[in-house]
Amino acid sequence: MNKFLFKSPFFWLIILALIAVGRPFYYIYLARHLDSFFLFMLFIPPVVIVYLWFAFRKLFSELKEQEELQAKIVSDKLEKSEEMLRIASKIAEIGYWEENLSSGEIYFSDELNDILDIDKPLDAEGYRNLLVAIHSGDRERFSLVLDELDASGEVEWDYSIKTVKGETKYLFERTILEKKNGAACKRMGVVQDITARKIAEQEIIQSQQYYKGLFDGAKDAIILFYPEGEIVADVNERACQMYGFSRDEFIGMSLLAISKYPGRGAEKIDETFRVKQAHHFETTQFKKDGSEIQLDITASLIDFRGREVILSINQDITEARRAEERIKLL
Question: How many CA atoms are closer than 13 Å to the CA of 141, on its beta-carbon side?
Fold first, then answer.
């Protein structure tokens, strides 16, 4: 309090007024007892006081301007940070909500309103209606999520929701429960729109299922193997039938162990890498029972789980080659 009192111009104005009122009486007293020189010297202190008054006034004015400038700089930085945060939230499609459990007031950020296609701020009733819009399968999980939130104070989950425009959106949410004196007082959540990612994941799953159907339904044997050591990575059902091995026996096996001409296989692998496209050749391999099987092979390079492998489509031409030999003998 004293610090602010001495900085106030009004404080010093009052002091000067008291001095001004009392000084004439002081001068009359001194005039009767001192000569003119000393009387002149008595006028110097008031001049100094007036000078100091204006000096202090200027100083206080400059300090005030500096404080205002500093406050403006801080305010500008805060506004810039908030604007950058808003832009980042917009780009990342992240929104924020807050619920006061005591008053029931709900706050939704503009970004969250955009995500949920909300045209006006929600009240408590509107928020409850929004929860009803959560798809039924996820709605059953909602009560479990609230229980987990009450127990741990923080929870993450993803769910789907139907917006007021009838669009289905997939959201990821992280919710925090704030407590005061042991009682829950506020819920806060950060919500991200992951619709594009979810749709992409579903398309990948559907694509995998589609190609898995083609893979297993092919009439020819299909073998995926790593070039290093010709280790089998995957096979289809037709390959298991053709060779007599189960899928578990096949995966991890080296094709060198069932090749009649292992050196030729290495040459064909090098050729596959060199031409970088599908090419054909014939070879002979062994079934599980030791019998030979002649194959027409189409080999190409593909990416499998982040690694380059050789896709080998093997057609059994054993009977065709035997028929050709019988014809030659006629």
Answer: 11
H helices of 42-109, in order, are 44-92
**Nearest one of 140, 137, 139, 176 to 156, comparing CA atoms:** 176
How far is it, in rounded angstroms, from Cα 186 to Cα 106? Answer: 10
Rounded Cα–Cα distance for residues 308 and 297 (Å): 18
pLDDT tens sequence across 98-142? 888 888 788 878 787 777 776 665 655 666 666 666 766 677 777
> Residue 296: its pLDDT value, please?
93
Q: How far apart are CA 127 and CA 25, in angstroms?
A: 78
Query: What is the strand order of the sheet 221-226 is part of?
Result: 231-235, 221-226, 307-316, 292-304, 279-286
Q: Is 246 helix (H, G, I), strand (E, B) or coil?
A: coil
Residue 177 β-bridge partners: 187
pLDDT of 165-184, one tens digit each?
A: 778 888 888 888 888 888 88
Beta strands in 143-289 (DSSP E): 154-162, 168-180, 183-193, 221-226, 231-235, 279-286
Amino acid identity of 222? I
Helix (H, G, I), strand (E, B) or coil at 101: coil
Residue at token pair 């995957």? 234
Structure-derived torsion over alpha carbons of residues 206, 211, 212, 215, reported in degrees to the nearest 10: 170
Is residue 285 within 8 A of residue 293, CB to CB? The reply is yes
The tokens describing 113, both together, are 């309103």
